[in-house]
Each structure stands twice: as C-alpha cells, then as structure tokens.
Amino acid sequence: MRWKKISDAVIRRLPLYLRVLDELANDPNTQLISSQDLGVRAGVGPALVRKDLAWFGEFGKQGVGYEVKFLRDELRRILNLDSEIKIAIVGAGSLGAAFARYAHKRYADDSSFNLNVVALFDNDPGKVGTEIDGIPVYSANEMQERVRELQIHMAIIAVPSEQAQTTADRLVAAGVKAILNFAPVKINVPEGVHLASADLSLELQCLAYYLRD
Amino acid sequence: MRWKKISDAVIRRLPLYLRVLDELANDPNTQLISSQDLGVRAGVGPALVRKDLAWFGEFGKQGVGYEVKFLRDELRRILNLDSEIKIAIVGAGSLGAAFARYAHKRYADDSSFNLNVVALFDNDPGKVGTEIDGIPVYSANEMQERVRELQIHMAIIAVPSEQAQTTADRLVAAGVKAILNFAPVKINVPEGVHLASADLSLELQCLAYYLRD
After folding, report:
1. What is the distance between the alpha carbons of residues B172 and B178, in angstroms, rounded to a whole number?
2. Which segment of A4-13, A44-53, A104-113, A168-177 scores lowest on mean pLDDT?
3. A38 inside 8 A of chain B by CB
C-alpha cells in the first residue's frame, strides 16, 4: 500500500514521533500517550500530530490517546523500518569513511533503526579490499553487480562533486531507490528514485550569513 | 548592514551561486555570466536568480549579465565569508571527530570557504589534550572560556542527544551565534542565535519511507 499524496513535511515528522515512542516503549509504566504529550516530546503541535497520523490510519482513541508500542510498530512499518535496510556508501574518503564508522556504531547497537551499512565503494586501489569497522570496501567498478547481489536499495554518495552524477546514475541503474547525497552539488535522478541532500558545507555557509548583526 | 526580511530559502541558494562563481573565477575566459547561465549551473531558475540577488543590491547589467569576480566577492561579503569564521565542534566521538577530519581537509585546502575548525571539546579525559588532524581537543569544562578566548562564533554539536540542549546553552552563554546540530534531538536557542540541524539518521529514516512501492 502506498499513500500517494502525503507531503515530505509529514514524512519528515514521522521519525521524530518514532524516536519518542522508541524511548517510551522501554518504560513499563507508559503504555499510552496523548497526542499532546507526543507533540511536546517531538517538538510538534498536538493538532499536527493527530493530522499527520490520520494520513495513515486511525491509531488512537479519543480521550485515551495512542498505545505506545502499537503506534511505534505502525510507524516503523510505515517508514519501512520493520525490515532491514541495506545501505551502500560510495566514496571511502574522509566523509564516507567517517559516516561508515558513525553509522556502524550508531545503528548496530540500536535495532530500532534497522539501517545497516553493508558496503563501501571506492576507486582507490589502496582502499579496495580493506574494511572500515568491518564494512568491506569494494572497487567502484563492481558497484552495479555488488549492489544487485547484496540487495542494496539505499545509498549514500560521498564522492567528489564531479563524480556525483555518474555515481548516482550507476546506483540507479543497479536498482537503488533512495539516495542521500553528501556531495556539494545538485544531482538529478529519474522519477521513482528519491533523493535527499546533506550538504554540510552549505549548512555552514548559510549559518555564516546570520553571524553579523 | 542587515537585510532583515530575507527568507531562509533565499539565503540557502546564495552558496549555490557562490560555488558556480568560485569555479568560474578560475577561468580567465569567463568574465561575465548571464542569470540564465548562473541559474542552470546552480540548478535554479533564471528569474529566481535575479530575484534572489536583487534583495542585496544591483549586481548585474541588463543584457550584459554579472561580472563573475565582482559578484563572487559580493556574495562572499553577504555571507560573511570574506573573513575567517572560527568553528568549534563539541563532541569528539565518531561523528564529531569524523567531521573535524573532513572539515580540516575540505576547508583548509580551499580558501573560498574561510571556515576554520579551531577547537574540539569532549569530556573524555582520554581525548582531552590530544589533537585530531592538528585540531586540539579541549575539556568540555573549558568550553566557555575557550570559545570566548578563541573568538568562536559558530559551533557544531555532535554530542549524544541527552547532552545536546545543555551544550547549546553553554555555547550560547559563551557568545556563539550560529549552531549546526548533529544530535538527533530538537534543541532550543534564544532569539539572535541561528540554529540549523543536520540529522543524518532522520534523513535516512525519511528515505526509507520511499523504498516500498
């Protein structure tokens, strides 16, 4: 089932709710949560909480609230986090390697993510064949066959700007459906592939604007 | 001078224009650029380019275009990137250390950024006193005095979620005016302090939503 017309803004709030519910699910004394309380903890207005969740079904009872574990499981299912998502990182330079280490530590310990970085790709022969925190570094030439073989559907692009579009094209050709682009450049993907950008330099450059008063 | 009512969306496009101009400034054959060409290269519609830039002054001539180096210098000035911006990273764990290495490599080689990570802070005694790619790791207890002493106005929060708000409060008290928050939690800052969030787990969780068809 797909919920066709739901805006990105709604989707972006679902992980915030999920985090609150994941935390609360460990507390045996909290079995129910009101939209008010969920909103405060997630930093979202309570009316918006109800509206966001209503897109996906009827999860709460008026005057009672939401069952914590039930809603958590539903949100995980909606976000496709109920089964393992295998991720490739292309580019094992400073940022790619760094994010691999971070993700390994962060997601391996916390099953609520279900995100698993299973492969790195690089074209430096000195890196190919090595491992970063147990994650193998493959040759960029093998990208397409490995992505297919390992059933990777999500990838992170951490290559230099001038290689970002080619990398995206190869990932898409191999069946990747969701890309997070760290390269500070605009890339294009065909319809049906979802692209997000995490351009950290751009964030810092924008912040600089607000420094002078 | 401040341009009060300019939206964040406009500000976020300025670094995209700046990148194009930085690249072109190295090419002795390109002294002028049309808004059309600037737009295509930056991935922004030409009408929007003109509109965005018009917020800050009259930089181009009708039918002639923009002088590349002049507009680059103006954009750097507008973004406060015409003088060095000193950045602190709080948290020298996997993500903080990783970003320090990345930033060191990326920004040190490229003077067009003018961003300089000058300090890391951590409360692990095993890390305090060490360096990461030449950047000293100070005790988190020294945060406020060091930030003042080193005249740091921008900071990156890379601590665990439960320490993020306290960290932000201390940074603000020490005079930091712009914060990039990597911790996967909502934090609050007073008016006059600008906050951006780079929640990479949230990006991946959102992307997961689009995986199922």
Report:
1. 9
2. A104-113
3. no
List, for residues B18-38, the tens digit of each pLDDT value: 999 998 998 888 899 999 999
List domains and CATH numbers for chain A: 8-78 (1.10.10.10), 85-203 (3.40.50.720)
Residue B154 to residue A197: CA distance in whole angstroms: 22
* Closest by Cβ to B177, choosing from A8, A81, A210: A210
Contacts of B213 in chain A (CB under 8 A): 2, 177, 192
Q: Tokens 């993500």 label which residue?
A: B95
For chains A and B, CB pairs below 8 A equal 168
Distance between CA atoms of residues B207 and A82, nearest Å: 14
| Whether the predicted pLDDT of A4 surpasses 70 | no
- What residue spans of A26-130 are helical by DSSP H? 35-42, 46-54, 68-78, 94-108
Question: Would you call B32 helix, strand, or coil by DSSP?
Answer: strand
Nearest to A15 among B94, B192, B205 (CB): B205
- For the whole model, what pTM was predicted? 0.83
How close is the nearest chain A Cα to the Cα of B59, in Å?
A: 18
Sheet containing strand B131-132, edge to edge, reads B131-132, B135-139, B115-122, B85-90, B154-157, B178-181, B194-197
What share of chain B has pLDDT > 70, as a percent? 97
Containing B105, the helix (H) or strand (E) segment is: helix B94-108
N-term to C-term CA, chain B: 50
Interval B65-85: pLDDT, tens: 999 999 999 999 999 999 899
Q: Flag whether residue B105 sits within 8 Å of chain A, measured between CB atoms.
A: yes
Spatial separation of the C-alpha atoms in residues A28 and A197, rounded to whole Å: 38
pLDDT at B101 over 90: no
